[in-house]
Write a structure and sequence with these properties.
single chain, elongated, eight-stranded antiparallel beta barrel, mainly beta, Porin
Length: about 220
């Protein structure tokens, strides 16, 4: 009987101590302590969004049966990026999460050289990359980049003129590389993007790119 009473008294003391963190008494009146904060809850993911710019180096292939003399060239990209990381405690810069997804919407100016001079290609790109963080701030990423080209100038050779105003609208590039995301929101990445579609119906050349991007992502969901 004594042991039961002591157990009940101990339980009551613990409960009273817990309640005292949020409530108090002053002049026989109860009041609420506004400074009390509940324990942080676990959220399934963290979301951050922000601007991004980058450098793009284009590397076209040269069809064997055409004398296009295509060469690489430097361009740029700009747009927005969104990053999702899974399984992190709320309010923590990094938790035990190892996986993420990077989604971007970019305008890309790809530059190529040819026998008739410089050939710019105005493109849009939508990378959807899956990330594995082998370190809290470093990840390997891989996934498709959906891209399309807007009408551009023609390529002139000694024997023919190849019009690019009917450039193919879509290409699904295979992208892979490294991504760095710091606690303050700064992000940077290095990628290789393998082109899989011809530039146009009458130009059987594919364009792959190497891209270097930097950006600043702001926390939307912590």
């Amino acid at each position: 009987m004594k042991r039961t009473i002591l157990t009940l008294m101990a339980a009551a003391a613990v409960s009273t101590s817990a309640l005292a963190q949020g409530f108090g008494m002053e002049d026989d009146n109860y009041y609420v302590d506004d400074s009390y904060q509940p324990t942080e809850v676990l959220r399934p993911f963290a979301l951050s969004i922000g601007p991004k710019v980058g450098f793009v180096y284009s590397m076209p292939t040269n069809p064997k049966d055409l004398n296009l003399d295509l060469k690489g060239g430097a361009g740029f990209s700009a747009g927005l990026a969104a990053n999702v990381r899974f399984g992190r405690p709320a309010g923590k810069p990094f938790g035990t999460e190892r996986f993420g997804v990077q989604l971007e919407a970019l305008y890309s100016l790809r530059q190529m050289g040819s026998a008739s001079g410089n050939v710019p290609m105005n493109c849009f790109e939508v990378p959807v990359l899956f990330q594995w963080y082998f370190l809290p701030q470093l990840a390997v990423e891989v996934g498709p980049t959906f891209s399309g080209a807007f009408p551009t100038k023609s390529i002139t050779t000694d024997n023919a003129v190849y019009r690019l105003d009917n450039a193919k609208a879509m290409d699904v590039m295979l992208s892979f590389g490294l991504n760095c995301k710091l606690k303050n929101g700064f992000t940077a990445d290095l990628r290789y993007n393998l082109g899989n579609s011809d530039i146009a119906g009458n130009v059987p050349a594919k364009v792959s790119t190497i891209s270097v991007g930097i950006g600043w992502l702001f926390n939307v969901i912590k």
